[in-house]
Amino acid sequence: MSELTFPAGFLWGGALAANQSEGGYLAGGKGLTTVDMIPHGPHRMPVKLGLEQRFTLREDEYYPSHQAIDFYHRYKEDIALMAEMGFSVFRTSIAWSRLYPNGDELQPNAEGIAFYRDVFRECKKHGIEPLVTLCHFDVPMHLVTEYGSWRNRKMIEFFARYARTCFEAFDGLVKYWLTFNEINILLHSPFSGAGLVFEADENPEQVKYQAAHHELVASALVTRIAHEVNPQNQVGCMLAGGNFYPWSSKPEDVWAALEKDRENLFFIDVQARGAYPSYSARVFREKGVKIEMAPEDTEILKNTVDFVSFSYYASRCASAEMNEQNSSAANVVKSLTNPHIKRSEWGWGIDPLGLRITMNMMYDRYQKPLFLVENGLGARDEINADGEIHDDYRISYLREHIHAMAQAIDDGIPVIGYTTWGCIDLVAASTGEMSKRYGFVYVDRDDHGQGSLNRMRKKSFWWYKKVIASNGRDL
Ligand code: BG6
């Protein structure tokens, strides 16, 4: 039993995303999205990074998103499992192209709306509050091929139409919304993050920051629309979080870490504070970036979010000498390997205190409630002779991080809730693997699309159920 407590009404649950769980990639009139073009195997990284253009599917590739874990057909069973654990919140995303298959239609696809209405009703039936991301790594492909995705200002209009449809169609069912998942990932993984593909002669920084501007204006605009449609709506931004530590106490290393933090925080600085941060003009100058803005943008950006959400897997580390050779992108964002923390099999750091540090920094900076909407350990699970999965490593990771979050709450930070990542095993975003598992529920499917897709409770399932029942006291 922990001495630390969680507030009454704290939301406990887990997270999935449409692009990694639903499958049904053309079902119900859905259009192709960016993630549907990203294969498993050697071409995965170049495509994700926007360095290799893939606008058509290939017969000889395996695309993990096409069937994923078939949440599209199994959501009732999956939501029942979440209810059995006692979830009070379930985070998922809406696939934009189920509602607008091409992205630029004027009217939505009724079948797509009906699907999500059923999903959210199923949640409500079990007393689970949906937390819904409007765009989680899945831009409709037609918007990429016809408009160049977020590099084009017209995306603001398309996204606003789609978002309004969601707020109106799911009014009364969904109250918590996130605009863009891990918005800062646009810098690190431009195609999967924002549908960007680069030409050889262009400055990628210019393209990325212009796209970022369009996303930031779109995010602020739909925050305003959400409040207009229903003043009860709560809208959050979403950061791929994790503070940078300086490699040493050398002032140059401390400065390098500050700069790396700002690179990521830039996005939510705008979303949470309503204007470009003071450091941005100098950064843009150094990168040769000139942002084209419309006269109304400054006013639109003032529509700030209600809360700040973030994912946290690990802290990061930077030095003045950091470069391509000595850093790694194990955790998507490039970092030096911190010798003081443990790592997962995939090289992702494990640093629970880093969560408390990150949360304190974010609350000091924004003074808005926080929502930890992704946290977890990607690990290989083995089914033992008795047909059970003893995932004690996952329990210990989550226990330590929940404890760190409780400490952050004890530091005075208001926290709305906690959704562990991949509460049911799903496709890994970075590698496309199924074998990198995060769930309390095992899904019988391998890295090549083989398996029954049957669900099975792991040891962590029973542990998390107990954590929720005790409102975080029994860790
Ligand atoms: C976050 C994403 O980056 O991390 C998720 O929002 C992703 O989509 C998660 O799945 C874990 O990363 P991975 O690569 O292990 O799936």
TrEMBL record:
Catalytic residues, chain numbering: E374 (nucleophile)
Pfam families for this protein: Glyco_hydro_1
One GO biological process term: carbohydrate catabolic process
InterPro entries: GH, GH_1_N_CS, Glyco_hydro_1, Glyco_hydro_1_AS
Keyword line: Glycosidase, Hydrolase, Plasmid
GO MF entries: beta-glucosidase activity
GO cellular component: cytosol
Top-rank lineage group of the source organism: Bacteria
Parts forming coiled coils: none
Similarity comment text for this entry: Belongs to the glycosyl hydrolase 1 family.
PANTHER family per UniProt: 6-PHOSPHO-BETA-GLUCOSIDASE ASCB-RELATED, GLYCOSYL HYDROLASE
Protein name listed in UniProt: 6-phospho-beta-glucosidase
Organism: Pantoea phytobeneficialis
